[in-house]
Design a protein that fits this description.
The chain is α/β, with parallel strands linked by helices and 473 residues long. It has 16 helices and 21 strands. It has three domains: 154 residues, Alpha-D-Glucose-1,6-Bisphosphate, subunit A, domain 3 (Alpha-D-Glucose-1,6-Bisphosphate, Chain A, domain 3, 3-Layer(aba) Sandwich), CATH 3.40.120.10; 212 residues, Alpha-D-Glucose-1,6-Bisphosphate, subunit A, domain 3 (Alpha-D-Glucose-1,6-Bisphosphate, Chain A, domain 3); 85 residues, TATA-Binding Protein, CATH 3.30.310.50.
């Protein structure tokens, strides 16, 4: 039986040389090509980009060959390129979509295959099903034009996607003011695509950028994986203190996610960063518009929505839900718990570079450091506390789901359960406005147990009760 390629929360990911092979990448690319052809995109341009993982440039070339073999013209990035830059290239080049070879924050053993639409955003779940259904069961059914011949014929063209992107973001944020601010900015690009970006953008002024993990190393030393959460970022947090930096900016493997460390070397979790970015847009920049959030992110956004009279829309987990909702509502901001944030005026795609620049602009406009910005936010919406436990699981998913439903807890962590939401996993709403969420990862055999509460002393009790409900304890 041929290996079955399934698109999870954000594309297809697999173990390199086990199921993530050149043949399977070509099959996935053929499925995407067939999907585009059925949408009437014959002969149009498609962007192909890739990250710094093992052999990514060759997997990218393989995908480009298949698209060219199906009659598409391909813009192929001339080096490892951040996901938001690839997404913007789709719009800039008026392409009909993109293939992005990346496994984002997954372990070093993995690689991935993301697809994007003509807006540079994630393709909705219905579209992903159509792509899956179009993937041939054999590589013999894949059409392909060899790279050198395709380039000679002008069917594949290599290009630098950074030029247009940089010109674009300079219209969204005043980079010169950040350069002039005299900050010391610590940057951890986690051996990924974000390496060199902040240093390049902020060069030539009083602000100093100090980078770590900014070269290519596909085994990701000093971290388990290039995901901007602890303990992966502990080296960066220590370097922030050692260098007396004003802030730590962290980008994940493909630079679509952003993590933040404060000037004291403390991690600011992703929910707080999302609330800070929304607060910055609403209060400091005076913007108004919808907020789109996944159910696993913060209720601080709901409170900001009420305070500033803007709608808040909640979706399932993943940008395949967030991006379409942002397009539908012309949202001001969209984001998720994993540290991915997208902004109006940009493409409907997570952008770790722009998110980092917005945090620096927040500091410039207020004259405050990250700890002080957080105090400003909490003065508006109250303090909120969050944590998450990821646990590998084996066995039947359906029976686990049935057991969770059967548990039917009345209290969690000593707080009364007020509602159960099953949009994506099992979210137990709690009496303090907080929540516990149990859901299965869309990309790995992992169960995630998350919570947010206004009671700092109840976080661990809520998580432990969550593990029991999930049958993991």
């Amino acid at each position: 039986m041929p290996y079955t390629i399934k698109f999870g929360t954000d594309g297809w990911r697999g173990v390199i040389a086990e199921d993530y092979t050149f043949d399977n990448v070509r099959r996935a690319a053929q499925g995407f090509a067939t999907y585009l052809l059925e949408k009437g995109k014959q002969g149009q341009w498609v962007v192909v980009g890739y990250d710094k993982r093992f052999d990514s440039e060759y997997f990218g070339a393989a995908a480009a060959e298949v698209l060219a073999g199906n009659g598409f013209k391909v813009w192929l990035t001339d080096g490892a390129t951040p996901t938001p830059v690839i997404a913007y290239a789709v719009v800039d080049k008026k392409a009909c979509g993109a293939v992005n070879i990346t496994a984002s924050h997954n372990p070093p053993t993995d690689n991935g295959f993301k697809v994007r639409d003509e807006h540079g955003g994630a393709i909705d779940p219905e579209g992903l099903k159509k792509i899956e259904a179009s993937i041939p069961d054999s590589v013999e059914k894949v059409k392909r034009e060899e790279l050198a011949k395709a380039m000679e014929a002008g069917h594949i063209v290599k290009f630098d996607a950074s030029v247009a992107y940089i010109a674009h973001i300079q219209k969204l944020v005043d980079i010169q003011k950040i350069k002039d601010a005299g900050f010391t900015v610590m940057v951890d690009s986690m051996w990924g695509n974000g390496g060199g970006w902040f240093a390049g953008l902020l060069a030539g002024g009083k602000t100093k950028v100090i980078e770590i993990h900014n070269t290519r190393n596909p085994i990701f030393p000093e971290m388990k994986r290039p995901e901007p959460i602890q303990p992966n970022i502990d080296v960066g947090l220590k370097a922030t203190v050692d260098n007396k930096a004003d802030i730590l900016l962290i980008t994940d493997g493909d630079a679509d996610r952003c993590g933040i460390g404060d000037e004291k070397g403390q991690f600011i979790n992703q929910l707080r960063v999302y609330a800070l970015l929304a607060y910055y847009l609403l209060e400091i920049r005076g913007e108004r518009g919808a907020i789109v959030k996944t159910l696993s992110t913060t209720t601080m956004l709901n409170k900001l929505g009420q305070l500033y009279n803007v709608p808040v829309y909640e979706t399932g987990v993943g940008f395949k839900y967030v991006a379409p909702k942002m397009m539908e509502t012309n949202a001001m901001i969209g984001g998720e718990e994993s540290g991915g944030y997208a902004f109006r005026g940009n493409v409907p795609e997570r952008d770790g570079i722009l998110a980092g620049l917005y945090m620096l602009d927040f500091m410039v406009r207020t004259g405050k450091k990250p700890t002080q910005l957080l105090k400003m936010l909490f003065a508006k919406v109250g303090a909120h506390y969050y944590d998450r436990i990821d646990t590998p699981f084996s066995g039947d998913r359906k029976s686990r789901e049935e057991a969770i439903l059967k548990a039917n807890p009345k209290t969690i962590g000593g707080l009364k359960v007020t509602e159960l939401v099953t949009v994506d996993g099992f979210q137990f709403k709690l009496e303090d406005g907080g929540w516990l969420l149990i859901r299965f990862s869309g990309t790995e055999p992992i169960m995630r147990v998350y919570c947010e509460t206004t009671h700092q002393d109840k976080v661990q009790a809520i998580l432990q009760d969550g593990l029991k409900i999930a049958g993991l304890k």
